Amino acid sequence: MQLDRRNFVKYAALSGTGILIHPLTSCGNKREAAGFLSNIGVCTDYSNYTLLKEAGYSYIEESVQNFLVPLDHESVFEEKLAQMRSSKLLIPACNNFIPAKLKSVGPDAVHDEILKYVDTAFRRTEIAGVKTIVFGSGGSRKIPEGFPAVEARDQFISLCKKIAPAAEKYNLTVVLEPLNKAECNIANSVAEGGEIVKIVSHRNFMLLADVFHMLREDENPDNIVKYGDLIRHTHIAENIGREAPGMNGEDFTPYFKALKEIGYEGLMSVECNWRDMPHQAAPALLELRRQIDLIGVV
Fold first, then answer.
1. pLDDT at position 19, please?
2. What does the buried/exposed string (b/e) look like for 151-174 if buried means 16 or more CB atoms within 10 Å of the residue's CB?
3. How confident is the model over 164-219, as pLDDT tens digits?
4. N or C: which end of the chain has fewer CB within 10 A?
5. Which candidate, 134, 193, 195, 126, places its Cα nearest to that of 163?
6. Would you say 15 and 204 are in contact if contact means Cβ atoms under 8 Å apart?
7. How much is the pLDDT for 200?
8. Pseudo-torsion of CA 72, 8, 258, 153, nearest 10°?
9. What is the spatial distance between Cα 90 and Cα 8, in angstroms, rounded to a whole number?
10. CA 61/CA 146 separation, integer angstroms
């Protein structure tokens, strides 16, 4: 199924409000009609779009730093934008948000610099039609050794409260991505991320559920249900080696069931380590579809 431009505009117009209403096709497929995980994409460079479109994926989730290039001159972004438009590429979401050198927490936190960077990035999302920014950025938000964790959390929440209105200004939703402890030491679970999102309390600052990180942290899928009203985006990969779906037989169905229970109608992006994308992409999507079908569609 492809995310056509007419329906993508509908998605883009509504997602910034925190209400995700996703495109449907007229092919009569029961899963698509239900809207549950009907749009699956891949976190990768937009140069892979043709390959992934042919494999059956709906969109690309690009990198803020690679595609929106907030630290580069406008001409660099315009060149990338022209390439996107010529290929009719759809980029509804971007990750890899804040560079590691721009610290969100700790004694070297630079919130003013980050907010300038954010304003450039968000202005460009509006031009490009990007509607979701994933706030993972483990290098930026990692708490330095010896720095008080409570103080760092307060710093991080303070920054998020400033980012949220900037997102609203550009009709954009920022989703906080909980990262496993090997990658970061703050907001390591959907539960911890959800509590931060509750404190920020802004409709343009919501939550992401990444099945890979949940598996790595052995986090119960029930947390998806508990914080379901905050979840606006999802990522997925297998636990071992962050492999593509299907490589090690990972069972994702408990997480799919939880997403189904909350009535999730958002996107799901495969964010994995590809061994051989041209040969793995289509089988990975087929495996995801197989497991989605296992839980049934109401």
1. 30
2. ebbebbbebbeebbebbbebbbbb
3. 999 999 999 999 999 999 999 999 999 999 999 999 999 999 999 999 999 999 99
4. C
5. 134
6. no
7. 98
8. 30
9. 8
10. 35
Beta bridge partners of 234: 209, 268
Give me the DSSP letters along 239-295. SGGGPPTTSS----HHHHHHHHHTT--S-EEE----S-HHHHHHHHHHHHHHHHHHT
Instruction: Give me the residues paired with residue 236 across strands.
Output: 270
Q: Quick one: which of 298, 283, 251 has its CA closest to 35?
A: 298
3-state helix, strand, coil in the chain (%, to 5): 50, 10, 40
Q: Is-contact 268 235, C-beta < 8 A?
A: yes
Furthest-apart CA atoms within the chain: distance in Å: 57
The token pair at 135 is 């706030």
Contact 186, 160 (CB under 8 A): no
∠ CA(145), CA(147), CA(149), 5° rounding?
Answer: 105
Q: What are phi and psi of 162, to 5 degrees?
A: -85, -30
Tell me 170's DSSP state. Answer: T
Beta strands in 152-258 (DSSP E): 173-176, 205-210, 231-236
Residues of the chain with confidence (pLDDT) below 70: 1-34, 297-298
What tokens appear for 49 in the block?
A: 């779009």
Locus of tokens 């899963």: 31
Which uninterrupted H or E stretch holds 205? strand 205-210
Residue where the block lists tokens 């969109």: 59
Position of tokens 């892979």?
48
Sketch out the chain's domains with CATH numbers: 5-294 (3.20.20.150)
By C-alpha distance, which of 275, 216, 245, 254 is closest to 57? 245
In angstroms, how far is the first alpha carbon of the chain from the final one? 19
Please state, in angstroms and rounded to a whole number, the distance separating the CA atoms of residues 36 and 232: 13
- At residue 10, the pLDDT reads 39
CA 202 centroid distance within chain: 18
For residue 40, the cross-strand partners are: 268
